[in-house]
Write the structure tokens for this entry.
Amino acid sequence: MIKLNQTRPYLPGKTKGEYMRNHPTRLQQTHRNGHGPKVSFGFVLGLMAIVAFSVMEAISHADPANQQAPKTYTFSNLATLGVAPNFGDFELGQINNRGDVLFVSETAECIDTPFGFALCEGVFLSKRGALGQPIHAGGPVPGGGTFAGFVVGPTAFNDQDQAALPLGLTPFTFPFGLNSGLYRYASGSGTLSAVLVPGVTAAPGLAGVTFQGVAQGVSINNLGTIAFPGVIPSTAGLPGTSVGAGIFTVDTAGTFSKVILPGDTAPGGATFNYAQNASINLGGDVAFEAHLAEAECINGDPDPAITIGCFATGVYLRQASTGNIIKIAQAGDLDPLGAPFRHAWGPYVNDAGAVVFVGDLTAPPAFDESLGLYLYTSSSIVPVVRPGDALPGGGSASRVTSGSSASYGINNRGDVSFSAVLDNGDQGVYVKSGGVIRLVAKTGTVLGTIGTMQALDSVFCGPVINERGQVTFTAKLTTDTVVLVSAALAP
């Protein structure tokens, strides 16, 4: 039944952020594998980007003053928590080139589950200053069924006003991802259409097999093609599970294609047994994160009654031009400064083929305590920001990203937006462009008439970025009010 509830009791004593931190068992995105050079316009652009980025990188590391660019921002308030219909938190999806923002938030409409807790999420679109809600808890979905008030990871949005929405259906069930569907939302017409209906839609290349759900990390390019982690029956998933997650694509005609399945051979001869957090560019390259059967689950062996995956071993790329899967980075590889990766996760690929991803530099047996952000271009990896790097506005990075793939982004120019916790405890939002880092906002920044920023809010805080350099993030003000903020470069 639907009931009013302005909190989000996903599990007793747990928040969704604690259960699904946007990672391999949470909600993340992945990288690609390796990437042999190809003689094309994209390859030439990639080489030029490597040279330019490397030069600027050397300059910015040599002189921290070069990290401050003469840019200022104007700020707009898109939504406020505690003001209907938004309660709980904001979970950012994407911002398109018109500045429209797709996000998830709890509402006062909730669905009880068989497990003694309620689910209250709705999907929202801030478009030209107006706030709309494509789907609410308890709403019917095309293809049959009811939205359970649970969104399986970040939502995706393109410049053609199309969104990809991974929605849990009633009855909500464990493990996470089962009985969830994939839907396409056209904001121009306000219509929602079914792409994948669990238990009904056939999985490509697998006779008699239907999708059982969707895992975290969907993406949609400007042609409307969606990349997603699909849950299927499998004996090649993690031990103790009867289902696994592979990576698939589906175009606007409804044609599904396989990228990888559990049991497929990974670069180097290991075996994929779980994948999620897919990202697709205009050319059809697909980046994803995956766990290898031969590698440890660094977050501990998962309980198959709750989850079907564990934290990623690395990030990989399926090249559209060749169909080859290449490794970008994985556990045991060294970062450009010689530090070993504990694991790598959360890739986003842009239309030039550049991939931004998170590399964990934590010493075992701990994990995700020291995170760096990296950029892959045409087989070369350079750091975007690492722990200890000086940042404009004062202070150095203590923790980069929130531990969620919803706390950084990349546009087609190669600008990378990211969040950071500083060595003095302050929190900030930054953009790195052409090797130069600039401050967007941090603790103490006056956000125009909105108020003064105290901190970022939730692990799904952003910033996400579009081609115009606009960034969106969630901020907690000194009044303790939480707002969804859009920042645009001042003329």
Residues 41-62 form the longest helix (22 residues). The radius of gyration is 21 Å. The chain has two helices and 33 strands. The longest strand covers residues 101-112.
